[in-house]
Amino acid sequence: MATLDSFREATGEPIQLDLANGYIADIRLNAGDINGRTITVELTDNGTPITSTDGITCALAYNTAPGSGLGDRVSMPAVFGTTTATYRVAVPRKALQHAGAILMGIEVSVNGTRTCSRNFHGIVERAVFDATAPDAQDQMGVLDKLIDDANKAVKNAVSAAGEAKDAADAARTSVIEYRQLSDDCKAKIAASAAIGVVFATQADIDAQYDSVIAPALSDAETIPPLTQSDIDWALDIINR
């Protein structure tokens, strides 16, 4: 099964970090990604593979406002089954909030030391589907209303299903005795019985209720929530 690991690699090939001052090229990112593009680092020591990750940790550091912002970092989990120590992480959503250049670097920690790679830039391209656009809030407001209306419709449907179930239960448990029937009704029952019509017993009615009506009503009580397809359908209507 395909993993898309290579497809998602932001640098095209893993960053081969052999020396602390080794050159790292700038990379292209996209503000629309959500755990999309990844950065992979392969560590070597002057060309010698590092065969164990014991005691070695890596982090991806980034700063969206160099010189004025503190910046942030995310741990890079080790990738196993490789010929040398390898670490990979998806570029965090927080780093992609604004289009433009951000400062990035790799931090390698071992035995209480931390060594930072040379800086490189991530060039964040504006997302095609841009939730930060001026009219995005208006469209999102329409979408929110559609979702709210849909949720209300679901609640109304569940409520109606509950009322139907209550009515069915009431009808099922109510008993009309023969003596309460009108003379005309008794005469029709007698005539029907005389020609061989078979009348259902209470046990027959209960069995049909349990096997046919009850399952249908119980399914109506578990109407599923909105899916991503439902939301995409609503967005398609908004954008027409």
UniProtKB/TrEMBL annotation:
Domain BppU N-terminal: 16-151
Protein name as it appears in the record: Tail fiber protein
InterPro entries for this protein: BppU_N
Organism per entry: Bifidobacterium longum subsp. longum
